[in-house]
């Protein structure tokens, strides 16, 4: 992308959008000395700055003066992406009403729904889904909105995305699923939601199970939760180790004591 050097007027317009200074922004635009979509070295425009910082009135003025609602930075991120990231529901609504594409992707294939899910913005996720957002897009590394919501512990979002059609066992490129990551992080409420959709409790593409992940991190309550759901305590991972042996390696005494009872039963 070729970006021209910023003029003084460009810089002033960007600063006005960043700070939400509507009178200054309007005055600069009305002067005719600067393009409404003037870019800085990163491809950022006034509309992107206003969206990222929650300045609704500036956004309305910029769009009225012809700003492109789908313009992208060099990272591929749009005004809608930044509004979703910041949790600005009114701006998300306004941008979509004014032609923003709901499933626009960044360079790493992240969508506005993805970033809203990552940041726990429930109402924005609801709104994006209601306006046609794909519930299950994969970022370049394979991570989906469901996966990232599970990692962050957003159980209400996990429930919402599953209901919207997200695939419970969609793996990251390394083979880890949402259940695996939630087990590793100790997010029991997330696990409860995932278990309603019968996720894989056995070995995953990464050669581990969710129980191994919980044992690795020493999450006793999650180990109990997974065992109750049907996880096999004697299942061996790709290295030939059971969950108890993983816990032993990491010196998680409470988990070792709990899982030892299942080893004894096998014997």
TrEMBL record:
Keywords: ANK repeat, Repeat. The keyword Repeat applies. InterPro entries: Ankyrin_rpt, Ankyrin_rpt-contain_sf, Dendritic_Spine_Reg/Scaffold. The keyword Transport does not apply. ANK repeats lie at residues 42-74, 75-107, 108-140, 141-173, 206-238. This is Ankyrin repeat domain-containing protein 29 isoform X2. It comes from Sitophilus oryzae. The gene is LOC115887203.
């Amino acid at each position: 992308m070729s970006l021209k050097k910023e003029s003084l007027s460009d810089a002033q317009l960007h600063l006005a959008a960043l700070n939400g200074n509507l009178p200054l922004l309007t005055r600069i635009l009305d002067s005719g000395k600067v393009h409404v979509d003037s870019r800085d070295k990163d491809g950022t425009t006034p509309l992107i700055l206003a969206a990222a910082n929650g300045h609704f009135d500036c956004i309305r003025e910029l769009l009225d003066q012809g700003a492109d609602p789908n313009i992208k930075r060099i990272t591929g991120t749009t005004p809608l992406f930044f509004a979703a990231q910041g949790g600005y529901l009114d701006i998300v609504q306004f941008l979509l009403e004014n032609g923003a594409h709901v499933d626009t992707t960044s360079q790493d294939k992240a969508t506005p729904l993805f970033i809203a899910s990552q940041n726990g913005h429930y109402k924005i996720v609801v709104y994006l889904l209601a306006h046609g957002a794909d519930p299950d897009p994969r970022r370049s590394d394979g991570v989906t909105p469901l996966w990232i919501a599970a990692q962050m512990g957003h159980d209400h979002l996990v429930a919402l995305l599953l209901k919207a059609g997200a695939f419970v066992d969609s793996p990251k490129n390394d083979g880890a699923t949402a259940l695996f990551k939630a087990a590793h992080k100790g997010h029991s409420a997330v696990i409860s939601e995932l278990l309603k959709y019968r996720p894989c409790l056995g070995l995953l593409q990464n050669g581990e199970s969710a129980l191994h992940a919980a044992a690795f991190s020493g999450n006793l309550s999650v180990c109990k939760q997974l065992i109750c759901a049907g996880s096999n305590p004697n299942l061996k991972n790709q290295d030939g180790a059971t969950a108890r042996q993983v816990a032993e390696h990491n010196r998680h005494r409470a988990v070792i004591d709990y899982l030892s009872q299942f080893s004894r039963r096998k014997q």
